[in-house]
Specification:
Radius of gyration: 17 Å
Helix content: over 70%
Largest sheet: none
Number of domains: 1
Shape: elongated
Distance between the termini: 58 Å
CATH topology: Methane Monooxygenase Hydroxylase, Chain G, domain 1
CATH architecture: Up-down Bundle
CATH superfamily: Ribosomal protein S20
Structural class: mainly alpha
CATH class: Mainly Alpha
Length: about 90
């Protein structure tokens, strides 16, 4: 446990940021799973779920929770899945 005031503050700040990142990642994973389930089931609203998933990925990248290159890679994979489902 830190004794210095600034170190104590850092512990609090890191805990807050960790919680925020967990919330963002959890929501992102939920959106991705919903999209995957819709693609597997050939659901009609897969396009809508695709836009939600892409939006969640972009928000996570914007907040710095995931790297921007990972965000682009995930979006490309989602588009590929959506296009393969349409065929």
């Amino acid at each position: 446990m830190p004794n210095i005031k600034s170190a104590k503050k850092r512990v609090k700040v890191i805990a807050t940021k960790t919680l925020r990142n967990k919330m963002i990642k959890s929501a992102l994973k939920t959106d991705l799973k919903k999209f995957d389930a819709a693609v597997v089931a050939s659901d009609a609203n897969a396009k809508e779920l695709y836009t939600n998933a892409v939006s969640a990925v972009d928000k996570a990248a914007l907040k710095g929770t995931i790297h921007k290159n990972k965000a682009n890679r995930v979006k490309a994979q989602l588009a590929k899945k959506l296009n393969s489902q349409a065929e």
